[in-house]
Write a structure and sequence with these properties.
This protein has nine helices and 19 strands. It is an alpha+beta fold.
């Protein structure tokens, strides 16, 4: 299928559409022509509007690719344009998303020869002769002076630069994978802060840009540099991000997310399974004989059975919360326990606390209260397990 976008920027632009329909009939191919309702203000906005229209057309017909007619000459022109603006000598990408450019290895004159050989009339856009545009000045003044060898050399430079960029991008992807961690509850992104801080500044900025892009952002250079220089090296530092998000540095992590309210307190069934969607977890409880080997993981607790005799609940932390962690010499502030456990500040309100008869008996992911441990005198045991709802379908268990 062929497609044409009429930008409506010239009085006679509808003639281009008629030409494209004529070529489509000659080739026996269907064609869709779209005319923009508002003429774009400049060449850059016209390009954006053109690709947006082509993407919509491709969606309508279920096309996997959108092929354009860019040639080797266009590639060489783009190299000079970028260099003239102080950028890298990158040419036109052969593929971006579903847009492909299969003619980048051919000269513009060659494509005209192919059309002539098959009797396909070629349309020349009159704006391509307007030397107010930098690309046209390069096309009509610079490339003829360079000659064929010069144009081919520019195209080779574009290809070499694309290959170098691909290697650089692959290295960044590897670094991102090395510092990326499973997000903590309530966060969208979690990176190894010491690992990031150890990278050279230009690599650290590249990793951060890619990480933020994974959240759907298009971060500015200034934002990336501020995050790299002012947040990554300083535990406790924070920086506002687009979309109402915040990035902050902990001792071991760089995290990003939105401030979430504490989930509501909820009663827990004993025995049974209690799903807590606001917390994103379910809590399983059972009463059983005291096990001979009371080993548990971070998201499982074995308590003295007397905890099952009083109402159980899960809630978030409250001012003044204290308890005696298993094996500790005395009572400690919950705040100190969470800090020592390296729980990110922004997620501490979402750490499930198991309450028995109004008393804090387990900080999920950490130790139980010493007074509720199993002892030789324990008649029964209460097993409590916490599992993340989003992991249940993959049988990965607890957070």
């Amino acid at each position: 299928m062929l497609a044409h976008v009429d930008h409506a920027m010239r009085e006679n632009s509808s003639g281009d559409a008629r030409h494209c329909r004529h070529v489509a009939r000659m080739l026996g191919l269907p064609i869709e022509v779209v005319r923009l309702s508002e003429p774009p203000a400049n060449e850059a906005s016209a390009r954006s509007a053109r690709y947006e229209a082509l993407e919509r057309m491709a969606d309508r017909v279920g096309a996997w690719t959108i092929a354009t007619g860019h040639t080797l000459d266009d590639d060489a022109e783009t190299v000079l344009l970028r260099m003239g603006r102080g950028g890298y000598p990158l040419g036109i990408p052969p593929r971006r998303g579903r847009v492909v450019r299969p003619l980048l290895a051919m000269r513009r004159a060659q494509t005209a020869e192919v059309c002539a050989a098959h009797g396909v009339p070629v349309l020349a856009d009159p704006t391509n002769t307007d030397e107010r545009f930098a690309r046209n000045r390069i096309r009509h003044r610079v490339l003829p002076l360079l000659g064929d060898e010069g144009v081919l050399a520019l195209a080779r430079l574009a290809q070499a630069t694309r290959e170098a960029k691909a290697r650089h991008d692959a290295a960044l992807d590897h670094l991102v994978a090395a510092v990326l961690r499973l997000p903590a509850p309530g966060t969208l992104l979690r990176l190894d802060r010491p690992g990031l801080a150890a990278l050279p500044a230009h690599l650290r900025e590249g990793v951060l840009r890619r990480a933020l892009a994974s959240l759907g952002m298009d971060p500015s250079t200034r934002l990336v540099r501020d995050l790299s220089a002012k947040v990554v090296p300083v535990p406790g530092a924070r920086l506002s991000l687009p979309g109402g998000l915040t990035a902050w540095a902990e001792a071991d992590d760089l995290l990003a997310g939105a401030a979430l309210p504490p989930p509501p307190a909820a009663p827990i069934a004993v025995p049974g399974t209690t799903r807590l969607p606001d917390w994103g977890i379910e809590v399983l409880t059972e009463v059983l004989p005291p096990p001979t080997s009371p080993r548990t993981g971070g998201w499982e607790a074995l308590l003295d059975g007397r905890a099952a005799a009083v109402p159980l609940a899960v809630r978030s932390r409250q001012p003044g919360d204290r308890y005696r962690p298993l094996g500790a010499p005395g009572v400690r502030k919950l705040q100190d326990v969470l800090v020592d456990g390296k729980v990110p500040r922004a997620t501490r309100d979402r750490v499930p606390l198991l309450i028995a008869g109004g008393r804090l008996v387990w900080v999920a992911g950490h130790r139980i209260d010493h007074d509720f441990r199993l002892t030789p005198a324990s008649v029964s045991a209460l097993r409590v397990q916490i599992r993340r709802l989003d992991l249940l379908s993959t049988n990965k268990g607890a957070p």
